Amino acid sequence: MIKYCLNFNKIQKGISWLLFLFIILSFYGEGWSQGGSYVIQVKDRLKISFWEYPELNSQVEVNRDGKIDLPIIGSVTAAGLTINALREKIISQMSLYNKVITQLSIEVSEYGSNVVYVTGQVNKPGKYSFEEIPNLWEILLEAGGPLETANLDQVVIVRKKEGGKIETVNLTDALRNANLDKLPEVYPGDTIQVPGTSSTGTPTSSLIKQDVVYVFGAVARPGPLRLQTNSTILDVIGQAGGPSRNANLDKVKHISVSHGTTSVVEINLNKYFEKTIPVPMPVGPGDTIIVPSKSALSSTLVRTVLTTTLTALATSAIFIGIRSL
Question: How far is residue 219 from each of residues 162, 182, 202, 292, 315, measured CA to CA in Å?
Fold first, then answer.
């Protein structure tokens, strides 16, 4: 009788693990599925990884019919589906041929529809794609930031959907007055043109001349700040109220403009703090500091690892308990 009770306790323990697993996945599922709600569009490039069978891994582009081609199952409609829905659809079709295939990850390597073009006085002019198109200033930063000769008083947006209509934006005022949220939206297919210097050869934008530094991202008070003498990057982040709780201090970006060129330096502030005598990192007029947020762990990876681990523990406990009856 005692042995029976002990074995029954093992079975109960295994069931408790399974219930714990269910609660954990249900409670945190929303946080782990960040990005899974993105709706796939035509021209998106997808990286699809099959963990059990890496030889099936594929990099595909959604064609104009909204479909992708995969090994074994062939053509699959992807456009209009969320990443999570497409993942379940592929697993369902793959399992008809091989039931071992139960997990895969989908990553959008290029957003084909949300594309904008940046030309003119920026460090890296070209084509840029986004999951969600950010504001005008953030797009310019993605393009390496403005050159020292950039005229940010008269940034031009050429509207694709409005037949080439031109909209001129005074980005200097928006930055100086912390009105980035009032900048006009940029839409897919738009072209951003950053003009250069005046005919006299002097910069027409006053942005670089101001004793102002710009702090964006995961800080308490993002926006422009009056630059104090001999300020360092730590001083500036402190002026902005300090990093927020979700700040990723491993990948802080310092963008500076000097002698006609823009430099972008990525700084690991966590390692910087570990130094016995850290070397000061000065900040100059017109510089921009970007403190990114921590991205969520891969939804599929976390769920799979947790599911596999806890299920194995629970199943083992149940099996041992039943076998001992």
Answer: 36, 20, 34, 9, 45
Token pair, residue 103, equals 């997990």
Structural domain for 5, as ranges:
1-32
Q: How far apart are CA 136 and CA 118, in angstroms?
A: 10
CATH number, domain of 97, equals 3.30.1950.10
Pick the more confident residue, 25 or 106. Answer: 106
What total number of domains does the chain contain?
4
Nearest to 214 by CA among 183, 192, 237: 237
**Maximum average pLDDT range among 183-192, 210-219, 301-310:** 183-192
Question: In whole angstroms, what is the distance from residue 238 CA to residue 232 CA?
Answer: 10
Residue 143 lies in a domain: yes
Q: Are β-strands 252-258 and 223-226 bridged in parallel, bridged antiparallel, or unpaired?
A: unpaired
Report yes or no on 310 lying in a domain. no
Asked if residue 324 belongs to a domain, the reply is no
Spatial CA neighbour of 141 closest among 116, 126, 123, 120: 123
Mean pLDDT, residues 293-315 taken together: 50
**232-259 pLDDT tens trace:** 999 999 988 999 888 999 989 888 766 5
Selection from 147, 118, 267, 119 nearest residue 207 by Cα: 147
Taking residue 226's Cβ as centre, other Cβ atoms within 10 Å add up to 10
Partner residues linked to 253 by β-bridges: 266, 290
**Span 14-42, average pLDDT:** 54
Domain membership of residue 118 (yes or no) is yes
The CA R_g of the chain, rounded to the nearest whole Å, is 26
Q: For residue range 113-167, what is the model confidence (pLDDT) as tens digits?
A: 889 999 998 888 998 988 889 999 989 988 888 887 888 888 999 998 888 889 9
Report the interhelical angle of 299-323 vs 2-32 (nearest 10°).
170
For β-strands 288-291 and 212-217, DSSP reports them as parallel
Q: Please tell me whether residues 137 and 98 are part of one structural domain.
A: no
Whether 160 contacts 191, CB under 8 Å = yes
